[in-house]
Design brief:
Length: 307
């Protein structure tokens, strides 16, 4: 699971490993979208999180910004642990993301790759499925100022919800947050009819020497390789993972290992595993109102009502 997987194990890897990736010469346009959403379908309570859409020459990458924003802090703490050889509980200082997915769109075909991270023993691995989405936008003549941009209205059905988007031709990218794309300009605001999910563009900047993987991801063995599977297999694999995130790692948890203490700490590996399991449980129980309804078609048609 992207950015969330093994946050508690990062410190353990950090004490044993020291990796530093080479600087890239890639420049990205980073667009900041504030996402307001209802995490519980039976509640009117809303939550907010900052997300980013990074646009490069060949692709765009959409994800939760929470972990990216803490990358420099993580680097300082991890390097301090490497120097001292003493374990530090990172869970006490790291804010957890609200969403774990990553959405890539390749240019110019705009094929969508939806990615999550799951466990393969102690090793995180990324799985994903691809979609060729025709949003069938209906562009209206309605125009208004959205933030700093002159925008125009468009509507489409996708994932069991009806979406209203506002796009601007002042930003020449036919892209948007999450999977949304295909309008003659960047989407600056989009929300569903019931306001379960609403993205609003808050700003943008250039990112020089852009790297898709953050420091914490690299230090814990992350890479950009994605195992692509069918959407059906993805759903089964990811649902199984959510039910028991440590299933593939549990056979390695021998009693003698679980009783070992972390370097320079009173915490045992068993204690850390319990923390990890609680973190997963809290994370997955925090949102039962997905962006796409479970029985919605992948082709953009609304979900059928249940009787």
């Amino acid at each position: 699971m992207k950015n969330l997987f093994s946050v508690l194990f990062i410190a353990l890897f950090a004490v044993m490993n020291a990796q530093e990736g080479e600087k890239s010469n890639i420049t990205a346009n980073r667009f900041f979208y504030e996402l307001t959403f209802k995490p519980k379908k039976d509640s009117a309570k809303v939550d907010k999180v900052m997300t980013v859409l990074d646009i490069t020459k060949d692709k765009s990458i959409y994800r939760d910004y929470t972990m990216i924003a803490q990358d420099s802090i993580m680097k300082i703490e991890i390097e301090a642990m490497q120097k001292s050889g003493v374990y530090k509980d990172m869970s006490k200082m790291v804010r957890m993301p609200k969403f774990s997915m990553k959405v890539d769109k390749t240019y110019p075909d705009m094929k969508v790759l939806y990615v999550e991270r799951v466990a393969n023993g102690f090793t995180p691995m990324s799985i994903g499925y691809t979609e060729d989405i025709n949003f069938n936008w209906k562009i209206s003549n309605d125009k208004q100022k959205i933030g700093a941009y002159n925008a125009q209205k468009a509507t489409a059905d996708y994932g069991g919800r009806t979406w209203t988007a506002w796009f601007t031709t002042e930003l020449p990218f036919q892209d948007g947050p999450y999977k949304f794309h295909g309008l003659p300009g960047l989407i600056v605001k989009i929300e569903d009819a019931d306001k379960n999910y609403s993205w609003m563009l808050q700003g943008n900047k250039k990112v020089n020497n852009y790297e898709e993987l953050g420091y914490a991801e690299k230090i814990s063995g992350g890479n950009l390789k994605v195992t692509e599977v069918s959407r059906e297999k993805f759903s089964k694999t990811f649902n199984d993972f959510k039910k028991d995130p440590l299933a593939t790692a549990r056979p390695y948890f021998k009693p003698e290992m679980m009783s070992q203490k972390m370097p320079g700490s009173d915490m045992t590996i068993g204690d850390m595993v319990k923390q990890q399991e609680k973190m997963y449980k809290d994370f997955y129980n925090s949102n039962d109102n997905p962006i796409e309804l479970a029985d919605a078609s992948a082709t953009g048609k609304p979900a059928k009502s249940k009787k």
